[in-house]
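Table 4 source record.
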Amino acid sequence: MPIRPIPCRLFPGLAVLALAVAPLSAAEKSFPIPAGKIGKGELKTVNGVPVLFLEGTPKEIGRQHGKLVGKHVRELVSYPRKFLKAVGRERQWPLAAVAGKLLLLKMTADHRAELQATISASGLDADSVVVANTMLELRRMGGCSTLIVGKDRSKTGRVLFGRNFDFPPMGVLDKYGVVTVYRPKGKRAFVSIGFPGLLGVISGINDAGLCVATLDVYGAKDGSPMFDPGGQPMMFTFRRILEECKSVKEAHALLKKAKATTWMNLAVADADGGTVFELTPKTVVARRPDRGLLSCTNHFRSDGLCTSKSCRRYASLVKGQAYKKLGLKDLKKLMHDANQRSWTIQTMIFEPSTMKLHVSLLDPPTSNKTFKTLDVKTLLAVRRPSKAVGQKH
């Protein structure tokens, strides 16, 4: 499989590689998992978007998840191994599996029970599922971009939060993008934008309108290790934010208590505004907006952590300062300006105050495709919508 450089060189001397794969046909781009129901769980299409509904105790949610998608996602959960082979590190698979199992022990009891129930119900290889759910710690190949627009700079008078999720699809990830609606017993309900079989959160919004999005980081100046097995699995920490918090302030408090395993940016926004948390195993720094806008890509920018500020995509996002105010179309354009072609496999815009999610999946670069709008409040308020929720724009 041929390899080419990624368009944006993140740091001096670092060549981030992208995998060039043949374009998929229109038929291959459709969501490959059929609709179905099991208990309170359901997989169906809502306004043209594949949506997986999960509800109940950790074991109930895990069983629903595994039964609904398990036999259909063997290709997807094999992605980590395929990824290692493509970058010449296939021999590291046993180490990745051991590291994943160690991180499993650092999860909350509820998350661990849900993951184990998902594995049992799916019939999938346990090591593959565990590594897929701890890849945030074990790899560095993602891109990603976010731009948060404050109320004073928004044409709507409300916070807007744009996000590109960039990762080498390898003919797999771009087929499986899904919106998952979680209604966990005794916790906040939330929506996660990710992939079937992925229990942690890389992008999401909860019933309080609190939104999160992860971004890989490739270097830190505080002397922290790139991987600290003594930390808590990051995707599950970010899920805890959606399950337990209602504001950026509460998210900050949780992050200060939950030790990070690796270097990561986490963009967080609520109805009042946004913050980028720069995270390492040693440090938590809160980076605030500049003149009402807050851009983020794949490097730290705070003085104590920054190793480089050179990034084409960051420069593209900062061009938003030329707008007096930005609306949905303006934000969508800026997110597309920061796209990474076939790597941009999910694009979304959150509106925290109105609980709207505008999302584009399955056809990279997703940043210039038609966005579908989902009413998050409606998705979370009912067990299973009986008709499409939202509209195109």
